[in-house]
Amino acid sequence: MKSPLALAAAIAALAIVTAACSSQQAEDAANAQVDKEMIIKASNYTFDSSEYRVKAGETVRFILESSSGNHGIHIKAIGLKLDPNKNSQIVTPKEKGSYPFECTILCGPGHKDMTATLIVE
Asked: What is the signed CA dihedral for 30, 35, 101, 45, rounded to 10 degrees?
């Protein structure tokens, strides 16, 4: 008969493998349902564009890439929140409109000027 410690280690290893497979399956399913990828590039005090456009009802994977400094964005109306700990999120904006946003992480003296707009058409 195996020791309780060996059995516990085997169960823990199986749990890790199962969780990894589950996580990968969830990611694969999400990838299959994405209509568009929107990369928002941030560097100190600026986003790479003043406007980003998507279509209402379109499922979009938003990705925040920071080339310098720590940056984040939050558009409450569509449920989008990205930062260095969570730099990718899938959102389906339903309502047409303009959604201004700004950097949510104090990034230095130009922080207050770090703004852009998401336009849902």
From this structure: 90
